[in-house]
Design brief:
InterPro entries: Beta_tubulin, Tubulin, Tubulin/FtsZ_GTPase_sf, Tubulin_FtsZ_GTPase. This protein is of the alpha/beta class and 101 residues long. It has two helices and five strands, in the order βαβββαβ. 25% of the residues lie in helices and 18% in strands. β2 and β3 form a beta hairpin.
């Protein structure tokens, strides 16, 4: 049986916590913040497809969708160290926040 995962993170500050998850998973699999494999053990690539899709030129892209009503939250994620790890079209955000509702 093949195992795959798609992570959806929705809501206030959730995408920021989601990045922490991807930092840990990336470290375990030897993936750097640009999505390139920099590991030193073939076991790191075993079952990598559970969390990542392999894109062009050997880049690994998280199987993730980040959703938030607050565009500022997404801007902080995109401008952070792991922001370029994600596909730009996997960021979904509103034009104004929920106002802490």
């Amino acid at each position: 049986m093949d195992w795959t995962a798609v992570n959806e993170e929705i809501g206030f500050r959730i995408p920021v916590m989601h990045i922490e998850f991807w930092e840990i998973i990336s470290d375990e699999h030897g993936i750097d913040p640009t999505g390139m494999y920099r590991g030193d053990n073939d076991l790191q690539l075993e079952r990598i497809e559970v969390y990542y899709n392999e894109a062009a030129r050997g880049k690994y892209v998280p199987r993730a969708i980040l959703v938030d009503l607050e565009p500022g939250t997404m801007d902080s994620v995109r401008s952070g160290p792991f922001g370029q790890l994600f596909r730009p079209d996997n960021f979904v955000f509103g034009q104004s926040g929920a106002g802490e509702d």
